[in-house]
Amino acid sequence: MHDRQMIARRKCVLVKYAGDTRYDPELVATHTQMKGQGITLKAHKLAEVEEQIFDPTVQVVSIDEGQFPFPQVSLLLPYSDEIKQVVAVCVGCGADASYSFRNTLDKKVEVIGGQDTYRALCRACYMEESSRRGDLENNDDENCIQSEHQLIKGDELALLD
């Protein structure tokens, strides 16, 4: 969507969470190594780029990975003429997926990772996996979770044949 706005010759800024350096330390990059075009701003908090976001000449603000430490995203809603939420495809059932389910039992609040760390799930599949995870955490056998094709031990993910 951001690149589409660039092609339309709108002045765009792309906000990248500064802590996410997986694919490129400066630019927003996808898991397939496609890089975002235009002005990229890195920030740990939106307040760090407030001046650039509210620049009257800026027509489009795109925020990558808005769920990171950008709880202030909701404060931008009243200033928006249009809001587009991009969703993935649920790896469980193929429906629209608006949830990311962590594959590991890591308890840290912020864990940056790709497909090795997270799975895109719809609400129904997310609730099912969360219930399964809850059953595991309440179970005396804390050594592993076994799902269809994965064995998870602690913070490690290993694919089963």
UniProtKB/TrEMBL annotation:
<feature type="binding site">
    <location>
        <position position="118"/>
    </location>
    <ligand>
        <name>substrate</name>
    </ligand>
</feature>
<feature type="active site" description="Proton acceptor">
    <location>
        <position position="65"/>
    </location>
</feature>
<comment type="similarity">
    <text>Belongs to the thymidine kinase family.</text>
</comment>
<dbReference type="Pfam" id="PF00265">
    <property type="entry name" value="TK"/>
</dbReference>
<keyword id="KW-0067">ATP-binding</keyword>
<comment type="subunit">
    <text>Homotetramer. Tetramerization from dimerization is induced by ATP and increases catalytic efficiency due to a high affinity for thymidine. Interacts (via the KEN box) with FZR1.</text>
</comment>
<protein>
    <recommendedName>
        <fullName>Thymidine kinase</fullName>
        <ecNumber>2.7.1.21</ecNumber>
    </recommendedName>
</protein>
<keyword id="KW-0418">Kinase</keyword>
<keyword id="KW-0547">Nucleotide-binding</keyword>
<dbReference type="InterPro" id="IPR001267">
    <property type="entry name" value="Thymidine_kinase"/>
</dbReference>
<dbReference type="GO" id="GO:0071897">
    <property type="term" value="P:DNA biosynthetic process"/>
</dbReference>
<keyword id="KW-0808">Transferase</keyword>
<dbReference type="GO" id="GO:0005524">
    <property type="term" value="F:ATP binding"/>
</dbReference>
<dbReference type="InterPro" id="IPR027417">
    <property type="entry name" value="P-loop_NTPase"/>
</dbReference>
<dbReference type="GO" id="GO:0046104">
    <property type="term" value="P:thymidine metabolic process"/>
</dbReference>
<keyword id="KW-0237">DNA synthesis</keyword>
<dbReference type="GO" id="GO:0004797">
    <property type="term" value="F:thymidine kinase activity"/>
</dbReference>
<dbReference type="InterPro" id="IPR020633">
    <property type="entry name" value="Thymidine_kinase_CS"/>
</dbReference>
